[in-house]
């Protein structure tokens, strides 16, 4: 089942556990891709179920996606923060869609409200049709030039400056932020982007660079490009990866679950989705995702245990790590050896798969779950023989 794909050799097993995030499915959820069977609508009550579960299970935070087909990430994060204790919220900062001054005020307010649990995901956007609906009519590289001006103003405001700025895309005079954020100088900035323009923006303005789940050698190459661009500016970056997970107790069970996930997708649906994604997106990262499998069902394992079945019909992150816990953990250590320290995971459906990842994979990765220890004092179906019963009892 495996393809002969080269990977970066592991010199030594990293000692530090990965930072592991999960995903809030604000565009809907379900058990079968391409099917309305067992579908779960984007309902806040369900978002809260997922967030509460991952908060208890020991995940560090959650990513909330953005776009016309997603419930707003800022409003959702504000609601979920009240229902959780430790969870961090990675929400979208959208240059061009809102003004940098207004975004700075939103940032400070939500960061204070969550007691410093806010993270920002800079999303420049890769769908010109959707961007036009938001009033953005710039080409690919010009959007990144606009984002650079946006982040310059935004960062200066969060750092306490009164800002005068006269650029190609923004002009502000006497802009200031009267109420600072809880995190200083500002909540950390994350960004993804495989183009030259995206990498330059990441190196100049952000703290953590995100990649979608490509084979390890491809990820390592992107990491080196970003590191070199950051080093030219005297900066150092951290790195994360966005992946789906299908983890089961055995490898056979995991691959059967992967097959089942796409079992109701028709060839017509695949052809339509692939055509649509190629036509509507100018994202370099999206093109790289599509090239991994070319829309073919027989070419889905694009590297050992890296399965591209999700990308047959889903835009954005389209790959999953599939296998038993020890194998999936080993694959993650390969990414970690290449420089990854943060994983943003997901799985269908997201509530149940968060438990599988926490219960099966976390012990392999040395991630401590936040659940309380439980040692029953009586004999029951989960602790057969655990209790010492007297003869009289």
Automatic annotation (TrEMBL):
<dbReference type="InterPro" id="IPR019911">
    <property type="entry name" value="Alkanesulphonate_mOase_FMN-dep"/>
</dbReference>
<keyword id="KW-0285">Flavoprotein</keyword>
<dbReference type="GO" id="GO:0008726">
    <property type="term" value="F:alkanesulfonate monooxygenase activity"/>
</dbReference>
<keyword id="KW-0560">Oxidoreductase</keyword>
<dbReference type="InterPro" id="IPR050172">
    <property type="entry name" value="SsuD_RutA_monooxygenase"/>
</dbReference>
<feature type="domain" description="Luciferase-like">
    <location>
        <begin position="19"/>
        <end position="341"/>
    </location>
</feature>
<keyword id="KW-0288">FMN</keyword>
<comment type="function">
    <text>Catalyzes the desulfonation of aliphatic sulfonates.</text>
</comment>
<keyword id="KW-0503">Monooxygenase</keyword>
<comment type="similarity">
    <text>Belongs to the SsuD family.</text>
</comment>
<dbReference type="Pfam" id="PF00296">
    <property type="entry name" value="Bac_luciferase"/>
</dbReference>
<protein>
    <recommendedName>
        <fullName>Alkanesulfonate monooxygenase</fullName>
        <ecNumber>1.14.14.5</ecNumber>
    </recommendedName>
</protein>
<dbReference type="InterPro" id="IPR011251">
    <property type="entry name" value="Luciferase-like_dom"/>
</dbReference>
<dbReference type="GO" id="GO:0046306">
    <property type="term" value="P:alkanesulfonate catabolic process"/>
</dbReference>
<dbReference type="InterPro" id="IPR036661">
    <property type="entry name" value="Luciferase-like_sf"/>
</dbReference>
